[in-house]
Amino acid sequence: LAKTTQPISMDSYEGQEVNITCSHNNIATNDYITWYQQFPSQGPRFIIQGYKTKVTNEVASLFIPADRKSSTLSLPRVSLSDTAVYYCLVGDNTGTASKLTFGTGTRLQVTL
Amino acid sequence: NAGVTQTPKFQVLKTGQSMTLQCAQDMNHNSMYWYRQDPGMGLRLIYYSASEGTTDKGEVPNGYNVSRLNKREFSLRLESAAPSQTSVYFCASNKELAGGPDTQYFGPGTRLTVL
Lengths: 112, 115
Fold this sequence. Notes:
The structure holds 2 protein chains of 2 kinds. Chain A has strands at 9-13, 18-23, 32-38, 45-50, 53-56, 61-64, 70-75, 84-91, 106-111. Chain A contains no helices and 9 strands. By secondary structure, chain A is mostly beta strands. Chain B contains no helices and 11 strands. The mean pLDDT of chain B is 93. Classes of the chains: A mainly beta, B mainly beta.
């Protein structure tokens, strides 16, 4: 699985847009990029997933440049409840029992 | 639809004791997983099961055994607990899309302390 690098922590004020960038220089052709969110004392929760260009859902947007060596998770107008750890995962999760590799993630702290 | 459920939520063991962590999912998913998460770390895969009746080792399988009892249930057993197994254990199941990427759904976790 491709190794990922993301910032250890980020701080933001409520109402701001937050962009978390993940580097994955060794991404393979069949790899997808997936982001999970984890609140304290809870299991990770799927946020968004993409292969190329831009993906948007009700929670976030995911921007992937043409070379796919990085990706950016964008959270619009964050609130205190967005304080969590965000994990970027890269892998070929299209086969049976695809396995995920979690790094240490980015700890986002949102304050007033 | 409860998703992925785990029992117990908390457990304290003494070194050498054994216990089984239970996991069940009601989403009819084929694949199920067990992870552990140590403080300040990401999740590490212990074992997984691609389908009923099959299990495979993940990144950190030593000291653990698993059973895929049926499609719904996947249990994790510690035969002789050690302090190094103090961790939070998460179970997950995998929603597989034909020709598309999968998505894993996680349970709430079991906090295990081994004294």
